[in-house]
Amino acid sequence: MATLAENSLLGTLRAAGAEVLDSDDVLEFYAHDIYGRGADLAAVVRPRDKHQLAAAVKAATDAGHPVVPRGGGMSYTGGYTQDLPGAVLFDLAHMNSVLEVNDTDMTVTVEAGCTWAGLRERLAHHKLRTPMWGTLSGLKATIGGGMSQNGIFWGTGRHGTAVQSCNSLEVVLADGTLLRVGKGHTRPYGPDLTGLFLGDTGALGIKATVTLKLVREALCHGYASFAFDEADQWFAAATEIERQGIATECFGFDPYLNAIRMKRDSLAGDAKQLVGMMKKQGGMLKALKEGAKVVAAGRNFLKDANYSLHVLAEGDIQAAADAHIESARNIVLHYGGREVENTIPKIIRANPFGPLNSILGPEGERWAPIHGLVRHGRARECFAAFENLFAEHASEMEELGVHYGTLIAAVGGSGTVIEPCLYWPDARNALIEDTIEPGHLKKVPKLEANEAARALAARLKKAIVDIFFAHDAAHFQIGRTYRYRDSLEPRADALLQAIKRELDPRGLMNPGSLGLSQQVSPER
Fold first, then answer.
1. Vertex 150, ends 144 and 154: CA angle to 5°?
2. What's residue 304's pLDDT?
3. Distances from the Cα of 338 to the Cαs of 215, 259, 328, 362, in angstroms?
4. Which of 132, 226, 246, 443 has a C-alpha 20 to 30 A away from that of 217?
5. CB atoms within 10 A of CB 28
6. Which residue from 16, 17, 67, 77 is spatially nearest to 42, judged by alpha carbons?
């Protein structure tokens, strides 16, 4: 039975006008992210506009409860899971409108609960998009989450990370203040106040609306895939392609992740997706030819690809896109690689925001990616440290069924993302089951809880985070996982804490994220 205090909180939150959820099954569901479960929640609030959001935040913090922005729920770093019970979690799924598309100023303003897939669909009518136009999880991941956690993928090879596409924000502070930062048409103007709230993991405020830059959608596309026998060749080619600015996306898989992809993907699904894309780009005949090529090629080429690299290029005319691909081809040949079938980049581009079935391994294993953005000059050295780590634990990993695969991706102007992904046999949680397509979920085994495998995966995860720290990596989705504050100089850390005290003196805005403590004393 609910206590008097709990009833009072729920009544106050409902008076703010937002939908309030408090059933045991809902609170249990929302207490999870992809990786783990946090402390018990007091309530889940689903506002319908920024004013309801602000009023509900004020109601919760006035009652002494922490407030937490969830985004699309795709965190695997404790981005919104809590260390202590009693938080009010905010799900902005109802705040999903595209408020304005301004094709004169080339900006778009959206509510923070809009997904990347939803924004793409709306902008397609205008033949526009944002420079970085979404993560691979964009079917669920929201624009607000992308601004809080940052992120990469679509457009990243040329345009950088998610937050680099942002001009301005409206943010709700811990006391319910609705604060606008930045000019809608440019950034920065004076000190970058917008930047304060970008990549903050929701520690400083909850995003309400976001204004992003726009660019014209590309008319023509080019694709290529390559294989390498040695990691040195793989990294050298990927970094040179990024430095030359010729790819909109450039990513690759090590031998272990190549093998996992071969197990997971469906050729029939590939062909169907590709036909859909090619119909839009070049008519039915071209679509059928490309679909037939996918089935004929299969994925046998990956058996000979120790390390694969996939490059996508764009242009206003086909000759421009083809020229970029030719440049990439020459770079790869220079570093000892060879060209293989370009099935993978075509398929991924055909369905950029596909179902999120890969959050389980092909045999039903749990999955945890751990990434770092490293400068080009340290990427190979960092990757070698991971190879050594896994070699040291090889026998224990084999015994407990723990395995891994690694992705790399070039980030325009910033370096290389390296992302070791851990897989281990373990029970899945309710969020995973809700995220994966029901048909796919039926095909993968349902595994029992495995504490020993889970503990080894946790130890490896921590070791990977420490290796990234030793190689001066930056991170997205900092959450409660990465060593952000350890990387700050003392005066910079003091400045961060001073900003936190000014905006959130009681430490009630997503406490624990960014490594900031549960309570921040105003006197400190």
1. 95
2. 60
3. 33, 19, 11, 28
4. 226
5. 14
6. 67
Residue 441 burial (C-beta neighbours within 10 Å; 0-12, 13-18, 19+): middle
Please check the confidence at residue 3 and state whether its pLDDT lies above 90: no
Residues 338-390: pLDDT tens digits? 999 998 999 899 999 999 999 999 999 999 999 999 999 999 999 999 999 99
One-letter amino acid for residue 391 of the chain:
A
Q: How far apart are the first and last CA of the chain?
A: 39
Percent of the chain with pLDDT over 70: 89
pLDDT at 8: 86
Cα-to-chain-centroid distance, residue 524 = 34
The pair phi, psi for residue 424, each rounded to 5°, is -150, 150
- Separation CA 199–CA 216 (nearest Å): 26
Per-residue pLDDT for 268 more than 50? no
Ramachandran category for residue 155: left, alpha or beta (phi over 0 → left; psi -120 to 50 → alpha): left
DSSP 79-107: SS--SSS-EEEE--TT---EEEEETTTTE
Distances (CA, A) of 214 to 219, 240, 352: 15, 27, 18
Q: Is the dihedral of CA 340, 344, 346, 347 positive or negative?
A: positive
| Per-residue model confidence (pLDDT) at position 259 | 87
Q: Can you tell me the distance from the alpha carbon of 22 to that of 87, in angstroms, rounded to the nearest whole number?
A: 12
pLDDT tens for 23-67 read: 999 999 999 999 999 999 999 999 999 999 999 999 999 999 999
Answer whether residue 107 shows pLDDT above 70: yes
| Cα gap 319→220, rounded to integer Å | 9
Asked if residues 95 and 111 have their Cβ atoms less than 8 Å apart, the reply is yes
Is the pLDDT assigned to residue 114 strictly greater than 90? yes
Instruction: Report DSSP letters for 407-475, one per residue.
Output: EEEEETTTEEEEEEEEEE-----HHHHHHS-HHHHHHS--PPP-HHHHHHHHHHHHHHHHHHHHTT-B-
